[in-house]
Design goal:
single chain; 3 helices; 21% helix
Length: 137
């Protein structure tokens, strides 16, 4: 059975509400339906699909029961994951909005692929790569 696409990723967040606001206000996600898990969290949607799951970094009995006990503490890295990338559109407008609201980013251009990239960090330090086709910019 071949893989088709990334479904979602989960972030253990130090501040659940700050992370929710970041993904909504900076990136345009929408809070959507989430099953009644025995721990606090959000499912954040893009184009009608839950793409980011947020859960509290502070472990609870319900969280450990459902997700399992974490081997590493919150302050430790989970392995070799460096970033998560998204396809995006409206490069100039998006970059101007980041400047306006004071979100730091790194800009890179990949000329061979006609791609503009913005790298930003979410409130928990997860690096997000936003890929914009150059003809979009």
């Amino acid at each position: 059975m071949p893989l088709a696409a990334i479904d979602h990723y989960f972030v253990y967040t130090q501040d659940l509400e700050a992370s929710r606001r970041f993904y909504e206000e900076v990136l345009g996600f929408e809070v959507g339906v989430r099953p009644p898990f025995p721990f606090k969290g959000y499912w954040l949607y893009l184009e009608g699909k839950p793409r980011v799951h947020l859960g509290e970094a502070q472990s609870s009995a319900g969280q450990e029961d459902y997700l399992g006990k974490r081997e590493h503490g919150v302050s430790e890295h989970t392995g070799a994951l460096d970033h998560v990338a998204f396809q995006a559109s409206g490069f100039r407008e998006f970059r101007a909005r980041l400047d306006q609201i004071g979100v730091d980013y790194r800009h890179r251009e990949v000329p061979q692929f006609k791609l503009q990239q913005l790298f930003i960090k979410d409130p928990d330090g997860v690096t997000l790569e936003l890929n914009f086709p150059s003809e979009d910019g």
